[in-house]
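Q: What would this complex look like in 3D?
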Amino acid sequence: MTSRLKDNLCSKNNLELKNNQKKKVVVIGGGTGVFTVLTGLKKYGYKLSAIVSMADDGGSSGILREEFGILPPGDIRRALIALSNTDNKILSDLFNYRFKEGKGLKGHSFGNLFLTVLQRLTGSFQEAVKEAAKILNTKGEIIPVTLSSCRLFAKLENNQIIKGEKNIDIPKHNGLIKIKKVWLKPKVKANIEAIKAIQNADAIILGPGDLFTSIIPNLLVENIKKTIRKSPAKKIYICNLVTKFGETDAFKASDFLKTIEKYLGKNILDYFIVNVAKPKKSVFKRYRLEKSKIVEIDEKELLKTKKIKLIKADLLRENSSLLRHNPHKLSKLINQLI
Amino acid sequence: MTSRLKDNLCSKNNLELKNNQKKKVVVIGGGTGVFTVLTGLKKYGYKLSAIVSMADDGGSSGILREEFGILPPGDIRRALIALSNTDNKILSDLFNYRFKEGKGLKGHSFGNLFLTVLQRLTGSFQEAVKEAAKILNTKGEIIPVTLSSCRLFAKLENNQIIKGEKNIDIPKHNGLIKIKKVWLKPKVKANIEAIKAIQNADAIILGPGDLFTSIIPNLLVENIKKTIRKSPAKKIYICNLVTKFGETDAFKASDFLKTIEKYLGKNILDYFIVNVAKPKKSVFKRYRLEKSKIVEIDEKELLKTKKIKLIKADLLRENSSLLRHNPHKLSKLINQLI
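A: Here is my prediction, written as structure tokens for the whole assembly.
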């Protein structure tokens, strides 16, 4: 490559980064899905905001929630690590560390403890998240969707009611019975910072992630749905790669879309991103044990929804024993759309 | 004050700081005593090293030592906080935080957990301490006296043997019976960085602090005593303000000095600093409950040791409910001696 061509390409990239700095991108979700999207997008120079679900009540988060009366730190921690940009890599490794030993410590995430102590020191969960973001020098802000404590409930098709995110997530119910409805109890108000981020967004990205336990809990918080609908932002929903037993068993791509539209409203989304690359057979075994299946892209059904553009692409992470989105393929695609 | 006079004073201070930068000061001890000395001295611009005892086996440190097989982090943590110079005060507050709630977390120091995780991530206790020092931007280095695990043992005058620092510190024995001898088991080698710091020191400061459980355990580590004796540094021992039941019950100033000389050797120390200010009566009550008494300065006995200069000064912390050294008075005095 000639050096002039190189310079031209460099300045083109710099220009793109500069333009992106003006773009406000909001990612809404929880769990590892948000982690993937943020990890990819942070390289594009956007003004990023991650709005994170506060319905988690399992594992280390669940224990801290109960014993310290704080909001669940787990999903916030994942977003912090994803956006971390510290020179000192050990800080993000610290946030990622999970104790494998120690009575009472085993199973706890050190990042969760870090956020718990910051909450005690600052007196507020929101301040704790901001302090952690400062320490990790995050490229973007992390916003709890609500600052009020609430629980996720689900009603199944057989009218059985499941209490608590963890009992839906790791199903205590017969996973073949579909979820009819989910709601938060008590009803909680949105964090004003989440509302502002959505109002000012140029793009809003939902998913991927556990549909009923990571994505929809955000839409159940008062005013979130309404604010997304009113926002002039481009709205993108990223479909999951695999179904989840007890939550989205046997779901096709159109079922994911219809469910999101049930909670968000119809004709709101602009793009629906699905993966069409076929994974290697070797990764299936693990998913068969978990009773998960590749999400079928039922294109005919999807094309009935005229407002939404269906975006099909190879989005798979290669050389992984897990079926996951490749953050770079995903963010490259998103960058083209917004 | 005229501005020229002000300038002169400023440049005098700057000059002093500049000269101090060349001076290497080593503080040896453990517990809150080291904390006090380091807090005061860090303002004087010396090249500071804190050599810290590794004999602690009580409390949060004791649990982590047992469950994670790491060296005890408690004394290291105190030195880190004392020398911390981070712009972000919340980081040193985090290191100082102790859990008041949570099954399995209550009583743990967050700083100790921080060091435990750093040890797991770096694979070495020494590296963990260095990473923590980097995060806290410490003014000076913190050096574990040994990198090998050991226990402190004591033999009383009645030949009873006490195993473990915590059982000597919070006496399980009759506190009126004197300690005849203390030793480490197994015998452990000194951290090479401790040896180097002592060899290159311009001044070495011992104490204040629990004589048998914080100061002497450093001198019991192989080669430490010998290296201090050979070092051309000025050697200063700071006497405790109060006696400690079970450890230094009824000790006078000369008893402290004689005991240190028993473990360090005679005619090694250059200065012996004692406080001569009288504390308010209101602080005595708490100490009576703990069976502690003000250390009597038995000057006649002290003056028999001709090599050592006795330095008497008002070193008390004012407006405190505890009998503690004032770090600024203490460091000002030390600065005059070295």
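A: To summarize the key features: Chain B has one domain: 22-147+188-337. The mean pLDDT of chain B is 93.
Q: Very helpful, thank you.
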